[in-house]
């Protein structure tokens, strides 16, 4: 794949998130006021949909579920956050937002239930 249209920049208000479909890949566009980020649609903590649980203030994206947070300019992890935010390269051309997509970005989630099952079955 290559540069793929996400949405018009005007469709994403400052300090807001918008879920878009880019060639069947779900991406959340984040407008942090002085720029945009294109990120996977779920929180890397426990898969919360970020277009619902995410809030942006002062260039920081916070998942309101358990308060993991990332600086959207530097992508630094803040507070108790334990996983980095993955991002697609994004650019604005003629008012349109494009992301460079080579593959769908996903997170690894630990199967905590399976670990519990293993623990009890061995005891
Ligand atoms: S699910 Fe997002 S911080 Fe826990």
UniProtKB/TrEMBL annotation:
Domain Rieske residues, every copy: 4-99
Keyword Metal-binding included in the entry's annotation: yes
Gene3D superfamilies in alphabetical order: Rieske [2Fe-2S] iron-sulphur domain
Membrane spanning stretches: none
InterPro entries xrefs: Rieske_2Fe-2S, Rieske_2Fe-2S_sf
Source superkingdom: Bacteria
Key words, A-Z: 2Fe-2S, Iron, Iron-sulfur, Metal-binding, Monooxygenase, Oxidoreductase
Pfam families, sorted: Rieske
A GO molecular function held by the record: metal ion binding
Record's protein name: Toluene monooxygenase system ferredoxin subunit
Organism: Hansschlegelia beijingensis
């Amino acid at each position: 794949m290559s540069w793929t249209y996400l949405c018009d920049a005007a469709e994403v208000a400052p300090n807001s998130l918008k879920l878009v479909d880019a060639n069947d890949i779900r991406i959340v566009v984040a407008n942090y006021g002085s720029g945009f980020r294109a990120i996977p649609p779920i929180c890397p903590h426990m898969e919360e949909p970020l277009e619902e649980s995410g809030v942006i203030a002062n260039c920081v994206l916070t998942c309101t579920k358990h308060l993991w947070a990332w600086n959207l300019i530097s992508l630094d992890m803040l507070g108790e956050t334990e996983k980095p935010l993955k991002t697609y390269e994004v650019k604005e051309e003629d008012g349109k937002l494009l992301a460079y997509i080579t593959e769908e970005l996903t997170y690894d989630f630990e199967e905590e239930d399976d670990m519990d099952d293993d623990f009890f079955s061995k005891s």
